[in-house]
Structures
1.
Amino acid sequence: MDARTTTLGALDLREMVDLKNGWLDRRIFWDDAIYQLELERLFARSWLFVAHESQIARPGDFLTTYMGQDNVIVARHTDGSVRVFLNSCTHRGNRICFADRGQARRFTCNYHGWAFGTDGALLGMHEEDHYQGWIDKAACGLHNARVESYKGLVFACFDPQAPRLETFLGDYRWYLDIVLDQTDSGTEFIGGCVKNEFDCNWKFCAENFTGDSLHASWTHDSGAKAMTAGHPVPDYMPVDPLSFHANANGHGWEGGLDGIGTLGLTYMNKPHVLAYYAQKRDEMVRRLGELRGRQIYGSVISATVFPNFSYLPGIATMRTWLPKGPRKIELRAWTIVNQDMPDEVKDAVLHSCMETFSPSGVMEMDDGENWENATRANEGVVTRRQPLHYGLRVGTEQRDDPDLPGNIARPMYADVNQLAFYQRWLDFLTADSWADIPAVR
């Protein structure tokens, strides 16, 4: 570790992230001290995606996941509310739940039999008589996070000073609705959770989805050809006048305006899926307007909700990049569909997600190799001294677009969304509390 990163200050970090000119210091992807600061000031403060409501539909349904590196249980309590609390017994710290998901009335620690409810409250323990007069059960419950939902997506936050979720999302909700508000039925996750691990820094993944259109036609060229089964690859990348970058509060969206790019490539051999979306477009236009319902949805789109929740609307994959240190992540991915989709369309969408973005998917393998090598290269001391260029169309975004909310730059072949992501990253890491983090970016 470099001497400068053993005691990090705001000045050091601001020197590492040159947003005005578009240069990043490689140490932000490598150093342990920076990573520990991310866990403390970013992941412990942010609203983080933890579940879709369809995964915990009934009282007693639960799943386990991570907020930063804090393992948590997400449970539907008996009163119908969703609770999120630490998965670590308040007696000796043992993990109390080892299952990925399931149904439970309580969670009982293997060590001494301490039992906790689906709200995290301590219910009792083995040989409880010995504790009479020596314990206040109410003070020994599992630490709960704040929980809020946005149209089926459940987020949690451990910081009591953080603003409400809708404020955290800001103008970005306009873009989220393109995926979440297509029909009255809402959305659901199908097919379970797919897990994958990469030896890479989590930020490479998040920034890629927030706006790296530059890699798509190059990195994924062979994958696209494989998907067409020998047929000519359609021109799925939008031309400059039909594409844009949008960001708000560090959340990023890049997309086209032709309404066909991703759908045309992903489902070119599945006409019943294309027919479903063609039939749905009129309803989407009524709900979301012409721009979102007909021109944006279906185009080449990738997106990230800051800091580590990403998705591809046309391919219907949603995923979290769970950090496991500065040089390792666990990817958890799901397939999202409209609840009122016909079963045969749901099956086709799920199959396409596995074909493209899964451990054996033709796109996932391409990305994973790049992210791992981009991280591993930084083990060299001299290599870490050379900054990385993020300067394409730097400074071109504007807030006064008449049709699109947030900060907008055209075309989407740019680094402006990545720079907005690192601006928000810097906001969090240099702030002593939420009072020092700008409300709107």
2.
Amino acid sequence: METRLTRDFGLDHPILSAPMALAAGGALAAAVTAAGGLGLIGGGYGDADWIETAFRDAGNARVGCGFITWKLAEKPELLTRVLTHDPAALFLSFGDPAPFAAEIAEAGVPLICQVQTLGQARQALAAGARVIVAQGSEAGGHGASRATMTLVPEVADLLAREAPEVLLLAAGGIADGRGLAAALMLGADGVLVGTRFWASREALVPDPIRAAGVAATGDQTIRSSLPDIARQLDWPTPFNIRTVENDFTRRWQDDPEGLRAREDIPPAYAQALQEGDATLAPPIAGEAVGLIHDAPGAAEIVTRMAAEAEALLGGGWRR
């Protein structure tokens, strides 16, 4: 399946794994790359030791790394440290990429910016993004309110008018070949996939939490700020997080301020994450859980998704 993305990045398949904080480690990123996609390590909240371990786990694989932009601003030295690994790409999301763009460009590393609005897409263009990811609200983890089906072609039209050389990826709700094929038809050059790789053998997700996610339907996911309150993370508006609902979210969904006042919840929540207690720590996954029924290796996910999309689109697909 040849697209501008596969040509520019030397890939076999137009598939990137999302840099999911604390879930997308080096083994997952390396497996996606080995299968012909491009794997991204989740630099997330800026744990330097965790990031170094992830790069070691990736071995010699050609992988990229992603950061939560507003959190990177608190530890900008981490960018310099990651760039010493010569990543295949540097991914920024949830904040203004401009303060980091010059250093990334000087290192000769492609900048990928994830956006949730047209305004953010223009901000990414101004920062020199080589790739823009249009993320719909269906996605797991953090995001905003626009839907994938309309945001992707609207950003595609913007790029066609103003920056036709910039590549576009679709994200949010894409878990199989149907989603990949649809994204290409909407004008994307490829896809960024999170939840489907979250439910893979290599993802750093406790087995009981992964199992709870795989067992859920898309109807059972919600967007809220409850996990961020429990983790004492001060996420800026308009971003909140999509998870599978559980006892914790049902208990606090109408009383977030009551949750904020409970000093006993953060340590209990942290322990639940470590122990895989899905009744307290909800699976951080998107609406695509309803399309997921197994947890194979990441390489199988890549090849299966690509084969399904190619069958749907017909042979010799080029964009």
3.
Amino acid sequence: MMRGVYYLKILLLYLYLSLNGPTVQGVALSKVNDVAKKLLMAKSLPFEDCGSKYLILYLNISSCTTIPCLMRRGTTVDVNVLFDDDSDNTKYLKHRVRWIFNTIKTQAHITPDPCDGNQKCLSNDNDGKFYWATVLVNKTLPAISGTMLWEAVNEYNQDVICFKVPVVITM
């Protein structure tokens, strides 16, 4: 008896969705997408958003499995970011990356910069936009705790992505 009620509910839901068309189906799909984004964000490396226009869904830094990120001087670090550009069709990002140690700020060297169609560093993903870049952990950086501040602007020089990650520079 209970199994029959279960199948009847499924049938009624199917009929309801098919009769009410794309609007109801769109709402259901939107809720599924929201859940998928939240799951993706839960797997991201923790970071502090410092005023992003776009929602950062996922951050991965190659040398980092815990916070603060341990970064060895003289190495390069791959940074991968998945974000939702809210249908802006982002095709260009210019990065400003700085190391902050106490009150001292110093530019980080990043490649490619800018990120546009020529470098293939920005692409569409099923869940949003994806970009990657490589940051040099310069040999002259002090072995100290600090922050990596990452900002990106679009082709109109509008701030669209900003995040901070605690780091420890090691020898």
